[in-house]
Design a protein that fits this description.
alpha+beta; 5-stranded mixed β-sheet; 8 helices; about 55% helix; about 10% strand
Length: about 200
C-alpha cells in the first residue's frame, strides 16, 4: 500500500514538472461541414471502440461526404475507460493533435490503426502526421487535455449516452445507421426550413 502511494505521488509530481509552455487546456477541435449549418450532427465516440471504428468508416465519412456544408458534424469524446485502457490517452492525444491543426487526421489514423493502439503508437502517429514531436509529447504527458475530454464525457452522460457510438441530430438521439441518420438529417433540415426566421 505504501509503495503504491509513493509511486502515485511520484507520478503526480512528474506530471506537475512537465513544461506546459505553448500548450492549451482548451479544445481547438474543429467540426466538419459548416459551423453555421441548420442541422447539427453530434457523435459521442471512443477511439478504441471497434463499433466506433466501423461507424467512422461506414457512417461518419459517408454523412460528411453526402451532406457537406448542410450539416455541422461535431465529434465528442466518450472514452469507455473500464474496457478500453488507451481510450482516454488517445482522446487527449487527438486534442493535442487538434492544437496543431490535425484533429481529423489523427482520428482517421487512430481508427485505421486501432488494433495497434498503445501509448507508444500515439507518438508514432503524431510523427506520421508531421506534428511538432516535442509539443505533442509534452501535451500528452501533461494531461492538459484531460478536463476537455472529461467535459465531453459528462455532457454525454447528461444526455443519456450509455455506449459508443451514439449520434444526435439537433439534440435528438438517433439510431446508429446510415439510413436512420440520413432520414433524421433530412427531417431536421426540412423542419428548420419551415420555421420562419
Amino acid at each position: 500500500m505504501r509503495s503504491t502511494l509513493l509511486t502515485l505521488s511520484l507520478a503526480l509530481t512528474l506530471v506537475a514538472c512537465i513544461d506546459t509552455t505553448g500548450l492549451s487546456a482548451e479544445s481547438s477541435r474543429p467540426s466538419k461541414g459548416s459551423p453555421t449549418a441548420l442541422v447539427t450532427v453530434m457523435e459521442f465516440a471512443d477511439l478504441q471502440c471497434p463499433a466506433c471504428k466501423a461507424a467512422h468508416e461506414q457512417i461518419t465519412r459517408q454523412l460528411i461526404a453526402q451532406y457537406g456544408d448542410k450539416i455541422n458534424f461535431t465529434f465528442k469524446h466518450f472514452p469507455l475507460r473500464g474496457i478500453h485502457p488507451y481510450a482516454m490517452e488517445a482522446a487527449m492525444a487527438s486534442e493535442c493533435a487538434a492544437d496543431q491543426g490535425k484533429f481529423w487526421e489523427f482520428v482517421d489514423m487512430a481508427f485505421t490503426n486501432q488494433t495497434a493502439l498503445k501509448s507508444e503508437t500515439l507518438r508514432t502517429w503524431g510523427n506520421a502526421l508531421s506534428l511538432d514531436a516535442d509539443l505533442f509529447d509534452r501535451c500528452i504527458r501533461s494531461n492538459i487535455k484531460q478536463d476537455t475530454v472529461l467535459a465531453d464525457y459528462k455532457e454525454g452522460e447528461k444526455n443519456g449516452v450509455r455506449g459508443t457510438p451514439t449520434f444526435f441530430v439537433n439534440g435528438t438521439v438517433v439510431t446508429s445507421g446510415i439510413a436512420e441518420l440520413s432520414a433524421a438529417i433530412d427531417a431536421a433540415y426540412t423542419e428548420t426550413q419551415a420555421v420562419p426566421l
